[in-house]
């Protein structure tokens, strides 16, 4: 998160009095240029519905996850469009499930005289409860969707304690 995200007003809403802004720009023209270039990039990116540049690379390479749990298992579903199962690695270690992946794409057109490549890596870490049996975990990859199923131990149901909520009636 950038510091400017904590400011309660946006750049378009905040107006510096004209004499002060002109005086400040005269003192530091590079600051003025820097501010203007940042504004232009933010405007362009905002127009495409993409978040601002801070953290954008990670957001684009990070798969969307869906987590679900029942008394019997924990299920992690990751959307990985354009990847094959050979491009993905799953590791369960020290109470953490880690999904690793790398996408490589190269296109070469000899008639057009160009080649194009795109590369990207991601890793997602998910904390697991102690009651999961990682040695019995299974994974399935189909049509760009990875489903990891982690069964819970039988003792897990015994360790869950429901706490009743009492209301104070006046």
TrEMBL record:
It comes from Sphingomonas taxi. InterPro entries: A-crystallin/Hsp20_dom (IPR002068), HSP20-like_chaperone (IPR008978), Small_HSP (IPR031107). Pfam families: HSP20. It comes from the Bacteria. CDD domains: ACD_sHsps-like (cd06464). Residues 56-168 form the SHSP domain. This is Heat-shock protein. Belongs to the small heat shock protein (HSP20) family.
